[in-house]
Design goal:
Shape: elongated
Helix content: 10-25%
CATH topology: STM4215-like
Number of domains: 1
CATH class: Alpha Beta
Largest sheet: 6 strands, mixed
Number of strands: 6
Amino acid sequence: MLNKKEEIYAAIKDITGNVGDTYPAEWEKLPAIQYVEEENRVQQWTDNREQSSYVRYRIDIWDRVSTSALAVEVDKKIAALGFKRTQCMDVDDPNGYKHKVMRYEGIINMKDDRVAHT
């Protein structure tokens, strides 16, 4: 099993001061970005071991005014890691914040760490 969360964090940590893998605790420090591993499963199994893994990450962005510029920056950083954006959408927020959800996925080769797509 591969863990790419550290790479995701390293790529987006400087976009804003409130980036983490948990739901934001400090709403006065907006904008906030949350990154979550939604799925990590064996894609190919041969010779009694995992050859490739399918992974999917969700990025949530909250702000008071707009999430668009942050979303563009997140997309550049995550795409540079080889992941494909499979979703980007605005979500209604009951507190009146702007909220955007983005999803990225890839199939990672266990031998060379390269990311492929379906």
